[in-house]
Design goal:
Layout (H helix, E strand, L loop, with lengths): L2 H6 L3 E6 L3 H11 L4 E6 L2 H10 L4 E5 L7 H10 L8 E5 L5 H9 L2 E6 L4 H45 L12
Parallel strand pairs: 1-2, 1-3, 3-4, 4-5
Length: about 180
């Protein structure tokens, strides 16, 4: 299997978090594509459970939700080693005020989108973030592969060195 085929086979999980089911269905209609697994969560706590159990490539996170809002979810994500580097795109209908946008970026967002969403812009941004995720995964795969090759080389080198026999009487040879 070629590297290109391995890269194409990666299924990327996108977590969509919104307390309004209609918004989740709209996101699903826009984002559904081969190689994507769209996961829905209706609340912050539900999203955090998904994030711990699954390998998520990108989170689309509603800002205003009852109980735990999107900012709180993002702050918890950033404090967890497993989720601290997962890109977050905040989605909101009402918080266009600059202070809320700034708060979103402070909480760890990589982007901030306002409803109603333009499907072309949303798809373009998601494609970009997913391409970065694929590159990151491919780089991690190549690093693991290089580490495995180096470890195999070191093992082989050790075996060869220990197999070399020094003739008796050679200066420095143990008798």
């Amino acid at each position: 299997m070629s590297e290109a085929q391995q890269s194409e086979e990666i299924v990327q999980n996108i977590l969509m978090v919104d307390d309004t089911p209609e918004n989740l269905y709209s996101l699903e209609a826009i984002l559904e594509a081969p190689g994507r697994n769209l996961i829905k969560a209706n609340s912050g706590p539900e999203a955090l459970k998904v994030l711990i159990k699954q390998d998520i490539s990108l989170v689309l996170l509603d800002v205003q939700m009852p109980g735990m809002d999107g900012f709180e979810v993002a702050e918890i994500m950033r404090s967890n080693p497993k989720t601290k580097n997962v890109p977050i795109v905040f989605v909101t209908a009402i918080n266009k005020d600059q202070k809320y946008v700034f708060k979103g970026y402070q909480a760890g967002a990589v982007d901030y989108l306002f409803k109603p969403l333009d499907p072309v812009i949303l798809a373009s941004k998601i494609d970009f973030f997913l391409s970065l995720d694929k590159q990151r995964r491919e780089l991690e795969r190549k690093i693991r592969q290089a580490q495995e090759h180096r470890a195999a080389y070191e093992r082989e080198k050790t075996v060869k060195v220990s197999a070399v026999q020094v003739p008796p009487g050679t200066p420095g040879a143990k008798q």
